[in-house]
Amino acid sequence: MSSWQKRVGKSTLLKSIMGIVKTPKGSVYLNNENITKLPTYKRAQKGIGYVPQGRDIFPQLTVHENLILGMERNAHKKKPIEKEIFELFPVLKTMLDRKGGDLSGGQQQQLAIARALISEPEVLLLDEPTEGIQPSIIQDIGRVIKKLKNRGNVTMLIVEQYLEFVMDVADYFYVMDKGHIVLEGKTEGIDPREIQEKIAI
Amino acid sequence: MDTYLLQIFNGISVSSVLLLAALGLAITFGLMKIINMAHGEMIMIGAYTTYMVQNLFISFLGDRYFDLYFIAAIPLSFLITGFVGYLLEISIVKRLYGRTLDSLLATWGISLILQQLARNIFGAPNVDVKSPAWLNGGVVVLSNIQLPYKRLFIILLAALCIAGVYLFLFKSDSGRRIRAVMQNRSMAESLGINTRKVDSMTFAIGSGLAGIAGCALTLLGSIGPTLGTNYIVDTFMVVVLGGVGRIIGTVAGAAAIGIGNTTFEYFTNASLGKVLVFLAVILFLQWKPQGFFSISSRVLDE
Protein backbone atom coordinates (compact mmCIF):
# COMPACT_ATOMS: atom_id res chain seq x y z
CA MET A 1 0.00 0.00 0.00
CA SER A 2 1.24 3.41 -0.81
CA SER A 3 1.08 7.09 -0.20
CA TRP A 4 2.26 9.72 -2.62
CA GLN A 5 2.20 13.34 -3.61
CA LYS A 6 0.64 15.13 -6.58
CA ARG A 7 1.77 14.59 -10.16
CA VAL A 8 4.48 12.11 -9.47
CA GLY A 9 3.08 9.27 -11.56
CA LYS A 10 0.93 7.37 -9.10
CA SER A 11 -2.27 7.21 -11.14
CA THR A 12 -0.16 6.38 -14.15
CA LEU A 13 1.34 3.48 -12.23
CA LEU A 14 -2.09 2.01 -11.53
CA LYS A 15 -3.19 2.64 -15.12
CA SER A 16 -0.14 0.88 -16.37
CA ILE A 17 -0.80 -2.10 -14.09
CA MET A 18 -4.33 -2.17 -15.49
CA GLY A 19 -3.05 -1.74 -19.05
CA ILE A 20 -4.95 1.48 -19.76
CA VAL A 21 -1.66 3.22 -20.58
CA LYS A 22 1.27 1.52 -22.26
CA THR A 23 4.22 0.38 -20.19
CA PRO A 24 7.31 1.63 -22.05
CA LYS A 25 9.82 0.19 -19.59
CA GLY A 26 9.64 -2.63 -17.10
CA SER A 27 7.04 -5.36 -16.83
CA VAL A 28 3.91 -6.26 -14.90
CA TYR A 29 3.64 -9.67 -13.29
CA LEU A 30 0.59 -11.31 -11.74
CA ASN A 31 1.11 -14.65 -9.98
CA ASN A 32 4.46 -15.08 -11.75
CA GLU A 33 2.84 -14.54 -15.13
CA ASN A 34 4.03 -11.70 -17.31
CA ILE A 35 0.92 -9.70 -18.25
CA THR A 36 2.71 -6.65 -19.68
CA LYS A 37 1.47 -7.36 -23.20
CA LEU A 38 -2.09 -8.37 -22.31
CA PRO A 39 -4.99 -6.05 -23.19
CA THR A 40 -6.82 -4.43 -20.28
CA TYR A 41 -9.87 -6.68 -20.38
CA LYS A 42 -7.75 -9.84 -20.16
CA ARG A 43 -5.90 -8.45 -17.15
CA ALA A 44 -9.26 -7.78 -15.52
CA GLN A 45 -10.30 -11.35 -16.29
CA LYS A 46 -7.11 -12.60 -14.67
CA GLY A 47 -8.16 -11.03 -11.40
CA ILE A 48 -7.30 -7.34 -11.18
CA GLY A 49 -10.05 -5.08 -9.90
CA TYR A 50 -9.75 -1.34 -10.50
CA VAL A 51 -11.34 1.64 -8.77
CA PRO A 52 -10.15 4.64 -10.76
CA GLN A 53 -9.71 8.21 -9.63
CA GLY A 54 -12.96 10.00 -10.32
CA ARG A 55 -14.69 6.65 -9.78
CA ASP A 56 -15.93 6.25 -13.38
CA ILE A 57 -19.42 5.07 -12.60
CA PHE A 58 -21.50 4.54 -15.74
CA PRO A 59 -23.77 7.57 -15.33
CA GLN A 60 -26.72 6.39 -17.41
CA LEU A 61 -26.78 2.89 -15.99
CA THR A 62 -28.61 2.03 -12.79
CA VAL A 63 -26.71 1.14 -9.65
CA HIS A 64 -27.80 -2.46 -10.16
CA GLU A 65 -26.48 -2.50 -13.74
CA ASN A 66 -23.22 -0.98 -12.60
CA LEU A 67 -22.83 -3.77 -10.08
CA ILE A 68 -23.75 -6.51 -12.57
CA LEU A 69 -21.09 -5.18 -14.91
CA GLY A 70 -18.58 -5.88 -12.20
CA MET A 71 -19.23 -9.55 -12.86
CA GLU A 72 -18.14 -9.33 -16.50
CA ARG A 73 -14.71 -10.45 -15.39
CA ASN A 74 -15.98 -13.98 -14.94
CA ALA A 75 -19.17 -13.77 -16.93
CA HIS A 76 -19.41 -17.53 -17.40
CA LYS A 77 -20.26 -18.14 -13.75
CA LYS A 78 -23.00 -15.65 -13.20
CA LYS A 79 -24.73 -15.39 -9.89
CA PRO A 80 -26.92 -12.96 -8.01
CA ILE A 81 -25.25 -10.13 -6.17
CA GLU A 82 -24.06 -11.48 -2.86
CA LYS A 83 -25.47 -10.16 0.39
CA GLU A 84 -21.98 -9.45 1.54
CA ILE A 85 -21.64 -6.51 -0.83
CA PHE A 86 -24.68 -4.88 0.74
CA GLU A 87 -23.35 -5.62 4.20
CA LEU A 88 -20.20 -3.72 3.31
CA PHE A 89 -22.14 -0.92 1.59
CA PRO A 90 -25.68 -0.83 2.97
CA VAL A 91 -26.42 2.46 1.24
CA LEU A 92 -26.30 0.80 -2.19
CA LYS A 93 -29.14 -1.58 -1.43
CA THR A 94 -31.58 1.28 -1.08
CA MET A 95 -30.76 2.83 -4.45
CA LEU A 96 -30.43 -0.09 -6.85
CA ASP A 97 -32.76 1.48 -9.41
CA ARG A 98 -31.24 4.96 -9.33
CA LYS A 99 -28.99 6.10 -12.16
CA GLY A 100 -25.30 5.93 -11.28
CA GLY A 101 -24.86 9.55 -12.34
CA ASP A 102 -27.44 10.74 -9.81
CA LEU A 103 -25.51 9.45 -6.82
CA SER A 104 -23.38 11.72 -4.64
CA GLY A 105 -19.62 11.51 -4.84
CA GLY A 106 -19.32 9.37 -1.74
CA GLN A 107 -22.04 6.99 -2.89
CA GLN A 108 -20.37 6.71 -6.28
CA GLN A 109 -17.10 5.86 -4.58
CA GLN A 110 -18.75 3.11 -2.59
CA LEU A 111 -20.44 1.83 -5.73
CA ALA A 112 -17.11 1.80 -7.57
CA ILE A 113 -15.47 -0.23 -4.82
CA ALA A 114 -18.45 -2.61 -4.65
CA ARG A 115 -18.36 -3.02 -8.42
CA ALA A 116 -14.70 -3.96 -8.27
CA LEU A 117 -15.19 -6.32 -5.33
CA ILE A 118 -18.16 -8.16 -6.72
CA SER A 119 -16.01 -10.32 -8.98
CA GLU A 120 -13.74 -11.24 -6.06
CA PRO A 121 -10.48 -10.00 -7.56
CA GLU A 122 -7.08 -11.15 -6.37
CA VAL A 123 -5.64 -7.67 -6.60
CA LEU A 124 -7.62 -4.49 -6.01
CA LEU A 125 -6.26 -1.17 -7.27
CA LEU A 126 -7.70 1.89 -5.52
CA ASP A 127 -6.84 5.31 -6.89
CA GLU A 128 -7.39 8.06 -4.32
CA PRO A 129 -10.49 6.60 -2.71
CA THR A 130 -10.85 9.59 -0.38
CA GLU A 131 -10.61 12.35 -2.96
CA GLY A 132 -13.46 14.84 -2.68
CA ILE A 133 -15.44 12.76 -0.25
CA GLN A 134 -17.00 13.78 3.03
CA PRO A 135 -15.23 12.59 6.21
CA SER A 136 -17.97 10.25 7.41
CA ILE A 137 -17.84 8.26 4.18
CA ILE A 138 -14.04 8.24 4.26
CA GLN A 139 -14.37 6.52 7.62
CA ASP A 140 -16.80 3.98 6.14
CA ILE A 141 -14.42 3.26 3.28
CA GLY A 142 -11.53 2.89 5.72
CA ARG A 143 -13.57 0.35 7.70
CA VAL A 144 -14.35 -1.63 4.55
CA ILE A 145 -10.69 -1.72 3.53
CA LYS A 146 -9.67 -2.99 6.96
CA LYS A 147 -12.40 -5.61 6.86
CA LEU A 148 -11.16 -6.86 3.49
CA LYS A 149 -7.62 -6.87 4.77
CA ASN A 150 -8.51 -9.01 7.76
CA ARG A 151 -10.25 -11.50 5.51
CA GLY A 152 -6.98 -11.78 3.61
CA ASN A 153 -8.02 -13.00 0.15
CA VAL A 154 -7.41 -9.79 -1.75
CA THR A 155 -4.22 -7.78 -2.16
CA MET A 156 -4.90 -4.06 -2.20
CA LEU A 157 -2.78 -1.35 -3.75
CA ILE A 158 -3.98 2.09 -2.67
CA VAL A 159 -2.78 5.36 -4.12
CA GLU A 160 -3.52 8.18 -1.72
CA GLN A 161 -2.37 11.65 -0.73
CA TYR A 162 -4.33 11.66 2.48
CA LEU A 163 -1.46 10.48 4.65
CA GLU A 164 -3.31 9.80 7.93
CA PHE A 165 -5.89 7.71 6.11
CA VAL A 166 -3.46 5.53 4.28
CA MET A 167 -1.09 5.09 7.26
CA ASP A 168 -4.13 3.92 9.20
CA VAL A 169 -5.30 1.27 6.75
CA ALA A 170 -2.05 0.14 5.11
CA ASP A 171 0.59 -2.42 6.12
CA TYR A 172 3.36 -1.28 3.87
CA PHE A 173 3.97 1.99 2.07
CA TYR A 174 5.99 3.45 -0.77
CA VAL A 175 6.58 7.15 -1.24
CA MET A 176 6.85 8.14 -4.85
CA ASP A 177 8.42 11.20 -6.46
CA LYS A 178 8.78 11.92 -10.19
CA GLY A 179 8.10 8.31 -11.09
CA HIS A 180 10.57 6.87 -8.59
CA ILE A 181 10.09 5.30 -5.21
CA VAL A 182 11.99 7.42 -2.68
CA LEU A 183 10.95 5.80 0.57
CA GLU A 184 9.32 2.56 1.61
CA GLY A 185 8.67 0.60 4.77
CA LYS A 186 6.17 -0.86 7.18
CA THR A 187 3.54 1.60 8.33
CA GLU A 188 3.84 0.26 11.84
CA GLY A 189 6.21 2.27 13.99
CA ILE A 190 7.01 4.96 11.47
CA ASP A 191 6.41 8.57 12.34
CA PRO A 192 4.24 10.22 9.65
CA ARG A 193 6.32 13.35 10.13
CA GLU A 194 9.29 11.53 8.67
CA ILE A 195 7.35 10.96 5.47
CA GLN A 196 6.07 14.52 5.52
CA GLU A 197 9.65 15.76 5.58
CA LYS A 198 10.62 13.51 2.71
CA ILE A 199 7.68 14.82 0.68
CA ALA A 200 8.61 18.40 1.47
CA ILE A 201 12.01 17.85 -0.11
CA MET B 1 -59.88 16.94 -45.41
CA ASP B 2 -59.86 13.30 -46.45
CA THR B 3 -56.82 13.78 -48.61
CA TYR B 4 -55.12 15.49 -45.73
CA LEU B 5 -55.82 12.55 -43.43
CA LEU B 6 -54.30 10.32 -46.08
CA GLN B 7 -51.29 12.63 -46.17
CA ILE B 8 -50.84 12.25 -42.44
CA PHE B 9 -51.02 8.49 -42.81
CA ASN B 10 -48.43 8.60 -45.60
CA GLY B 11 -46.32 10.81 -43.38
CA ILE B 12 -46.42 8.23 -40.63
CA SER B 13 -45.46 5.50 -43.05
CA VAL B 14 -42.54 7.55 -44.42
CA SER B 15 -41.59 8.16 -40.78
CA SER B 16 -41.51 4.47 -40.10
CA VAL B 17 -39.05 3.80 -42.94
CA LEU B 18 -36.92 6.71 -41.74
CA LEU B 19 -37.17 5.35 -38.25
CA LEU B 20 -35.86 1.94 -39.31
CA ALA B 21 -32.93 3.55 -41.08
CA ALA B 22 -32.31 6.03 -38.29
CA LEU B 23 -32.34 3.41 -35.52
CA GLY B 24 -29.18 1.94 -36.97
CA LEU B 25 -27.66 5.34 -37.46
CA ALA B 26 -28.57 6.38 -33.93
CA ILE B 27 -26.38 3.52 -32.83
CA THR B 28 -23.39 4.09 -35.13
CA PHE B 29 -23.54 7.90 -35.10
CA GLY B 30 -25.19 8.54 -31.76
CA LEU B 31 -23.31 6.01 -29.69
CA MET B 32 -20.10 5.41 -31.61
CA LYS B 33 -19.59 8.95 -33.00
CA ILE B 34 -18.86 7.66 -36.47
CA ILE B 35 -20.40 9.72 -39.27
CA ASN B 36 -21.25 6.73 -41.39
CA MET B 37 -22.03 7.98 -44.90
CA ALA B 38 -22.13 4.35 -46.03
CA HIS B 39 -25.21 3.82 -43.88
CA GLY B 40 -27.38 4.56 -46.92
CA GLU B 41 -25.62 1.78 -48.79
CA MET B 42 -26.55 -0.58 -45.97
CA ILE B 43 -30.16 0.25 -46.84
CA MET B 44 -29.31 -0.53 -50.46
CA ILE B 45 -27.73 -3.86 -49.53
CA GLY B 46 -30.82 -4.80 -47.54
CA ALA B 47 -32.99 -3.96 -50.55
CA TYR B 48 -30.87 -6.02 -52.95
CA THR B 49 -30.85 -8.89 -50.49
CA THR B 50 -34.64 -8.86 -50.64
CA TYR B 51 -34.40 -8.81 -54.44
CA MET B 52 -32.10 -11.82 -54.41
CA VAL B 53 -34.27 -13.73 -51.96
CA GLN B 54 -37.22 -13.09 -54.26
CA ASN B 55 -35.31 -14.43 -57.27
CA LEU B 56 -34.15 -17.48 -55.36
CA PHE B 57 -37.72 -18.25 -54.34
CA ILE B 58 -38.87 -17.91 -57.95
CA SER B 59 -36.14 -20.21 -59.29
CA PHE B 60 -36.18 -22.88 -56.63
CA LEU B 61 -39.54 -22.95 -54.93
CA GLY B 62 -41.90 -21.90 -57.67
CA ASP B 63 -45.12 -19.95 -57.40
CA ARG B 64 -46.62 -21.85 -54.53
CA TYR B 65 -44.31 -20.53 -51.86
CA PHE B 66 -43.51 -17.24 -53.55
CA ASP B 67 -45.58 -15.17 -51.15
CA LEU B 68 -43.52 -16.35 -48.24
CA TYR B 69 -40.30 -14.91 -49.62
CA PHE B 70 -40.78 -11.61 -47.85
CA ILE B 71 -40.93 -13.27 -44.45
CA ALA B 72 -37.57 -14.88 -45.18
CA ALA B 73 -36.16 -11.69 -46.65
CA ILE B 74 -36.52 -9.64 -43.46
CA PRO B 75 -34.17 -11.65 -41.22
CA LEU B 76 -31.85 -12.39 -44.15
CA SER B 77 -31.43 -8.73 -45.04
CA PHE B 78 -30.68 -8.04 -41.38
CA LEU B 79 -28.07 -10.79 -41.23
CA ILE B 80 -26.37 -10.11 -44.56
CA THR B 81 -26.27 -6.35 -44.09
CA GLY B 82 -25.12 -6.84 -40.54
CA PHE B 83 -22.32 -9.07 -41.79
CA VAL B 84 -21.24 -6.46 -44.35
CA GLY B 85 -21.29 -3.91 -41.53
CA TYR B 86 -19.16 -6.22 -39.42
CA LEU B 87 -16.57 -6.60 -42.21
CA LEU B 88 -16.56 -2.83 -42.64
CA GLU B 89 -15.98 -2.30 -38.93
CA ILE B 90 -13.10 -4.73 -38.51
CA SER B 91 -11.38 -3.51 -41.70
CA ILE B 92 -11.92 0.24 -41.83
CA VAL B 93 -14.19 1.82 -39.25
CA LYS B 94 -12.12 0.56 -36.31
CA ARG B 95 -9.37 2.96 -37.37
CA LEU B 96 -11.75 5.91 -37.31
CA TYR B 97 -12.95 6.04 -33.72
CA GLY B 98 -12.39 9.47 -32.25
CA ARG B 99 -11.79 10.93 -35.71
CA THR B 100 -15.29 12.08 -36.59
CA LEU B 101 -14.40 14.16 -39.65
CA ASP B 102 -12.09 11.52 -41.09
CA SER B 103 -14.88 9.02 -40.64
CA LEU B 104 -17.11 11.18 -42.83
CA LEU B 105 -14.66 11.14 -45.74
CA ALA B 106 -13.67 7.52 -45.44
CA THR B 107 -17.20 6.20 -45.19
CA TRP B 108 -18.27 8.41 -48.09
CA GLY B 109 -15.58 6.66 -50.14
CA ILE B 110 -16.90 3.31 -48.97
CA SER B 111 -20.39 4.33 -50.00
CA LEU B 112 -19.20 5.15 -53.55
CA ILE B 113 -17.38 1.82 -53.78
CA LEU B 114 -20.45 -0.08 -52.61
CA GLN B 115 -22.66 1.75 -55.11
CA GLN B 116 -20.34 0.88 -57.97
CA LEU B 117 -20.20 -2.70 -56.76
CA ALA B 118 -23.99 -2.87 -56.86
CA ARG B 119 -23.93 -1.42 -60.39
CA ASN B 120 -21.46 -4.07 -61.50
CA ILE B 121 -23.40 -6.93 -59.99
CA PHE B 122 -27.02 -5.93 -60.61
CA GLY B 123 -26.66 -3.37 -63.40
CA ALA B 124 -27.33 0.35 -63.31
CA PRO B 125 -31.08 0.33 -64.05
CA ASN B 126 -33.50 -0.04 -61.18
CA VAL B 127 -34.94 -3.45 -60.50
CA ASP B 128 -38.38 -4.28 -59.19
CA VAL B 129 -39.29 -6.42 -56.29
CA LYS B 130 -42.76 -7.90 -56.55
CA SER B 131 -44.66 -7.50 -53.31
CA PRO B 132 -46.23 -10.65 -51.93
CA ALA B 133 -49.94 -10.96 -52.70
CA TRP B 134 -50.97 -10.76 -49.07
CA LEU B 135 -49.70 -7.19 -48.90
CA ASN B 136 -51.77 -5.97 -51.84
CA GLY B 137 -54.94 -4.08 -51.15
CA GLY B 138 -55.74 -2.17 -48.01
CA VAL B 139 -58.11 -1.35 -45.22
CA VAL B 140 -60.96 0.99 -46.13
CA VAL B 141 -61.50 3.29 -43.19
CA LEU B 142 -63.70 6.01 -44.60
CA SER B 143 -65.70 5.96 -47.79
CA ASN B 144 -62.80 7.26 -49.84
CA ILE B 145 -59.75 6.56 -47.71
CA GLN B 146 -57.89 3.33 -48.10
CA LEU B 147 -54.85 2.50 -46.04
CA PRO B 148 -52.60 0.15 -48.04
CA TYR B 149 -51.52 -3.02 -46.25
CA LYS B 150 -47.96 -2.44 -47.40
CA ARG B 151 -47.65 0.78 -45.50
CA LEU B 152 -49.40 -0.63 -42.46
CA PHE B 153 -46.98 -3.54 -42.58
CA ILE B 154 -43.98 -1.19 -42.63
CA ILE B 155 -45.34 0.70 -39.62
CA LEU B 156 -45.76 -2.60 -37.80
CA LEU B 157 -42.26 -3.70 -38.79
CA ALA B 158 -40.79 -0.44 -37.49
CA ALA B 159 -42.67 -0.83 -34.22
CA LEU B 160 -41.38 -4.38 -33.82
CA CYS B 161 -37.82 -3.25 -34.51
CA ILE B 162 -38.08 -0.48 -31.93
CA ALA B 163 -39.33 -2.95 -29.37
CA GLY B 164 -36.55 -5.35 -30.33
CA VAL B 165 -33.83 -2.73 -30.07
CA TYR B 166 -35.22 -1.52 -26.76
CA LEU B 167 -35.30 -5.01 -25.27
CA PHE B 168 -31.86 -5.79 -26.61
CA LEU B 169 -30.21 -2.60 -25.35
CA PHE B 170 -31.92 -2.39 -21.97
CA LYS B 171 -32.74 -5.95 -20.97
CA SER B 172 -29.96 -8.15 -22.35
CA ASP B 173 -26.40 -8.71 -21.19
CA SER B 174 -24.98 -7.68 -24.56
CA GLY B 175 -27.04 -4.52 -24.50
CA ARG B 176 -25.77 -3.62 -21.05
CA ARG B 177 -22.23 -4.17 -22.28
CA ILE B 178 -22.84 -1.92 -25.28
CA ARG B 179 -24.20 0.88 -23.10
CA ALA B 180 -21.30 0.54 -20.70
CA VAL B 181 -18.70 0.72 -23.48
CA MET B 182 -20.36 3.73 -25.09
CA GLN B 183 -20.48 5.59 -21.77
CA ASN B 184 -16.98 4.88 -20.55
CA ARG B 185 -14.74 2.79 -22.73
CA SER B 186 -11.68 2.41 -20.52
CA MET B 187 -13.74 1.64 -17.42
CA ALA B 188 -15.74 -0.99 -19.28
CA GLU B 189 -12.49 -2.56 -20.41
CA SER B 190 -11.13 -2.45 -16.86
CA LEU B 191 -14.11 -4.53 -15.78
CA GLY B 192 -13.18 -7.25 -18.23
CA ILE B 193 -15.29 -6.34 -21.25
CA ASN B 194 -13.72 -6.95 -24.64
CA THR B 195 -14.51 -3.54 -26.08
CA ARG B 196 -13.32 -4.35 -29.60
CA LYS B 197 -15.82 -7.19 -29.80
CA VAL B 198 -18.58 -4.93 -28.51
CA ASP B 199 -17.67 -2.27 -31.10
CA SER B 200 -17.89 -4.58 -34.08
CA MET B 201 -21.09 -6.19 -32.82
CA THR B 202 -22.70 -2.79 -32.22
CA PHE B 203 -21.75 -1.59 -35.68
CA ALA B 204 -23.04 -4.80 -37.23
CA ILE B 205 -26.40 -4.42 -35.49
CA GLY B 206 -26.69 -0.78 -36.57
CA SER B 207 -26.00 -1.83 -40.15
CA GLY B 208 -28.39 -4.76 -39.96
CA LEU B 209 -31.23 -2.42 -38.93
CA ALA B 210 -30.54 -0.35 -42.04
CA GLY B 211 -30.80 -3.61 -43.97
CA ILE B 212 -34.33 -4.12 -42.63
CA ALA B 213 -35.15 -0.57 -43.73
CA GLY B 214 -33.95 -1.49 -47.22
CA CYS B 215 -36.09 -4.59 -47.16
CA ALA B 216 -39.12 -2.49 -46.26
CA LEU B 217 -38.35 0.01 -49.01
CA THR B 218 -38.74 -2.64 -51.69
CA LEU B 219 -42.46 -2.56 -50.92
CA LEU B 220 -42.70 1.12 -51.82
CA GLY B 221 -40.92 1.24 -55.17
CA SER B 222 -38.19 -0.06 -57.41
CA ILE B 223 -34.65 -0.19 -56.11
CA GLY B 224 -31.34 0.88 -57.57
CA PRO B 225 -27.69 1.33 -56.61
CA THR B 226 -28.29 4.89 -55.39
CA LEU B 227 -31.28 4.00 -53.23
CA GLY B 228 -29.39 4.84 -50.06
CA THR B 229 -28.33 8.33 -51.06
CA ASN B 230 -31.99 9.39 -51.19
CA TYR B 231 -32.38 8.54 -47.55
CA ILE B 232 -29.06 9.30 -45.90
CA VAL B 233 -29.65 13.05 -45.42
CA ASP B 234 -33.11 12.61 -43.93
CA THR B 235 -31.80 9.84 -41.73
CA PHE B 236 -29.04 12.01 -40.33
CA MET B 237 -31.56 14.78 -39.72
CA VAL B 238 -33.71 12.38 -37.74
CA VAL B 239 -30.83 11.45 -35.46
CA VAL B 240 -29.63 15.02 -34.94
CA LEU B 241 -33.14 16.37 -34.42
CA GLY B 242 -34.13 13.58 -32.07
CA GLY B 243 -31.10 13.92 -29.85
CA VAL B 244 -28.32 11.48 -29.28
CA GLY B 245 -28.51 8.35 -27.19
CA ARG B 246 -32.25 8.09 -26.64
CA ILE B 247 -34.53 5.75 -28.60
CA ILE B 248 -37.53 7.95 -27.89
CA GLY B 249 -35.63 10.84 -29.49
CA THR B 250 -35.13 8.87 -32.68
CA VAL B 251 -38.83 8.01 -32.77
CA ALA B 252 -39.81 11.66 -32.27
CA GLY B 253 -37.26 12.82 -34.84
CA ALA B 254 -38.50 10.34 -37.43
CA ALA B 255 -42.11 11.35 -36.83
CA ALA B 256 -41.28 15.05 -37.13
CA ILE B 257 -39.27 14.69 -40.33
CA GLY B 258 -41.62 12.17 -41.96
CA ILE B 259 -44.83 14.03 -41.24
CA GLY B 260 -43.14 17.38 -41.84
CA ASN B 261 -41.97 16.24 -45.27
CA THR B 262 -45.37 15.03 -46.45
CA THR B 263 -47.25 17.96 -44.93
CA PHE B 264 -45.07 20.67 -46.42
CA GLU B 265 -45.06 18.83 -49.74
CA TYR B 266 -48.83 18.70 -49.72
CA PHE B 267 -49.20 22.44 -49.21
CA THR B 268 -46.38 23.48 -51.53
CA ASN B 269 -44.41 21.14 -53.80
CA ALA B 270 -41.73 18.52 -53.41
CA SER B 271 -38.62 20.69 -53.51
CA LEU B 272 -40.07 23.65 -51.60
CA GLY B 273 -41.40 21.21 -49.01
CA LYS B 274 -37.92 19.87 -48.49
CA VAL B 275 -36.51 23.38 -48.09
CA LEU B 276 -39.15 24.23 -45.50
CA VAL B 277 -38.38 21.08 -43.51
CA PHE B 278 -34.68 21.90 -43.57
CA LEU B 279 -35.42 25.44 -42.44
CA ALA B 280 -37.61 24.22 -39.60
CA VAL B 281 -34.92 21.79 -38.45
CA ILE B 282 -32.21 24.45 -38.55
CA LEU B 283 -34.35 26.89 -36.57
CA PHE B 284 -35.20 24.24 -34.04
CA LEU B 285 -31.56 23.28 -33.56
CA GLN B 286 -30.69 26.94 -33.05
CA TRP B 287 -33.13 26.96 -30.21
CA LYS B 288 -32.33 23.49 -28.85
CA PRO B 289 -28.96 22.27 -30.15
CA GLN B 290 -29.32 19.00 -28.25
CA GLY B 291 -32.43 17.97 -30.18
CA PHE B 292 -35.76 16.84 -28.76
CA PHE B 293 -34.34 14.64 -26.07
CA SER B 294 -30.98 14.92 -24.45
CA ILE B 295 -29.34 13.08 -21.64
CA SER B 296 -28.89 15.06 -18.49
CA SER B 297 -27.27 13.92 -15.30
CA ARG B 298 -24.91 15.12 -12.67
CA VAL B 299 -21.89 13.60 -14.34
CA LEU B 300 -22.58 14.92 -17.82
CA ASP B 301 -23.31 18.41 -16.54
CA GLU B 302 -19.79 18.85 -15.32
Automatic annotation (TrEMBL), chain B:
<keyword id="KW-0029">Amino-acid transport</keyword>
<dbReference type="Pfam" id="PF02653">
    <property type="entry name" value="BPD_transp_2"/>
</dbReference>
<dbReference type="GO" id="GO:0005886">
    <property type="term" value="C:plasma membrane"/>
</dbReference>
<keyword id="KW-0472">Membrane</keyword>
<dbReference type="GO" id="GO:0006865">
    <property type="term" value="P:amino acid transport"/>
</dbReference>
<comment type="similarity">
    <text>Belongs to the binding-protein-dependent transport system permease family. LivHM subfamily.</text>
</comment>
<protein>
    <submittedName>
        <fullName>Urea ABC transporter</fullName>
    </submittedName>
</protein>
<feature type="transmembrane region" description="Helical">
    <location>
        <begin position="266"/>
        <end position="287"/>
    </location>
</feature>
<feature type="transmembrane region" description="Helical">
    <location>
        <begin position="236"/>
        <end position="259"/>
    </location>
</feature>
<feature type="transmembrane region" description="Helical">
    <location>
        <begin position="68"/>
        <end position="88"/>
    </location>
</feature>
<keyword id="KW-1003">Cell membrane</keyword>
<dbReference type="InterPro" id="IPR001851">
    <property type="entry name" value="ABC_transp_permease"/>
</dbReference>
<dbReference type="InterPro" id="IPR017779">
    <property type="entry name" value="ABC_UrtB_bac"/>
</dbReference>
<dbReference type="InterPro" id="IPR052157">
    <property type="entry name" value="BCAA_transport_permease"/>
</dbReference>
<keyword id="KW-0813">Transport</keyword>
<keyword id="KW-1133">Transmembrane helix</keyword>
<feature type="transmembrane region" description="Helical">
    <location>
        <begin position="203"/>
        <end position="224"/>
    </location>
</feature>
<feature type="transmembrane region" description="Helical">
    <location>
        <begin position="43"/>
        <end position="62"/>
    </location>
</feature>
<keyword id="KW-0812">Transmembrane</keyword>
<dbReference type="GO" id="GO:0022857">
    <property type="term" value="F:transmembrane transporter activity"/>
</dbReference>
<feature type="transmembrane region" description="Helical">
    <location>
        <begin position="152"/>
        <end position="170"/>
    </location>
</feature>
<feature type="transmembrane region" description="Helical">
    <location>
        <begin position="12"/>
        <end position="31"/>
    </location>
</feature>
